[in-house]
Amino acid sequence: MNESFREKAQILDEFVLKIAAMALMFCDHLGLFLLSYLGSNNVAGLILRAAGRLAFPLFAFMLAEGMRKTRSKGRYILRLTIMWALVAAAQVILFYGFHAKEIQTSYNAFADLILGALFIYCLSLQGWKKSLAALPVLAIGASYGLQICLFNEILSISSFPFFLLPGYSLFGFALILGFYYSKNLVDAISGKYLAGGGQSLEAFQETRSYQSLMNFMAVTALFVVTLIGWGISYLPAPINFDVVTMQAVNAGTVGQTWCLLAAIFLFLYNGKRGPDGKAFRIVSYAFYPMHIAVLFLAFLLIFGY
Description:
Blueprint: H1 5-8, H2 14-38, H3 43-52, H4 55-69, H5 73-97, H6 109-123, H7 134-151, H8 169-194, H9 201-204, H10 208-232, H11 263-267, H12 278-303
Helix pairs in contact: 2-3, 2-4, 2-12, 4-6, 4-8, 5-6, 5-12, 6-7, 6-8, 8-10
């Protein structure tokens, strides 16, 4: 049986996606420091920030994959929480101890990942425990409301630690859920299609054709959520509901809609985990707080405060 181009193009495993996401995240934060130190119109900084818009969709996608494949959702969320705490501690030290102004608007994406994972986990529980899924929804809603107040200067808290909030807010939450539950839709459609063909869904799930459908559905989720967010950014004043900044509206800002380019990585995903040794896990978990600290120290030594 001849494979289609989409099936042959499945060359990236989860290991490669993690490396790409970390590299793009580094670019994003390097761009943030360049814009802070060299001015809001620095071309290199703006390009790096645009590249960095691809990082969160990849992390959100891998979270969805992790929550589907992990043996223990509870332990998976615990690891995310530990990482959130470590990153938050590093951000607090840099912001309050070293007055690193860049940290104030450098969100801790683990907050977004944890709330999305908690919602998925709670819905997997039995009986009344499913209702606990309302808690992460309330947390996202409260955070979004607070961000609207801060962005529209309804609250005048100039030194508010934005990094303690889930920075991608409703956009990030919807993206995580879109990635995770896209499998349900693929399985439902595939099950109906295969019903009269003699092939089981379980057997079909092991094929590249199934992975192509999964990739297509993930890209669809990315486009739908991004376009909805982009549409919200056009809602008329007086209140700005676009806390994720889907458009580049001011000097030094880059529109989140650049994240659509992450579709390239999603189309090339082969559904395999790839190398996942303990050493790599430690490095990948430590990378987030360490690279922020290294960037801050490097710019501090070169430019001073």
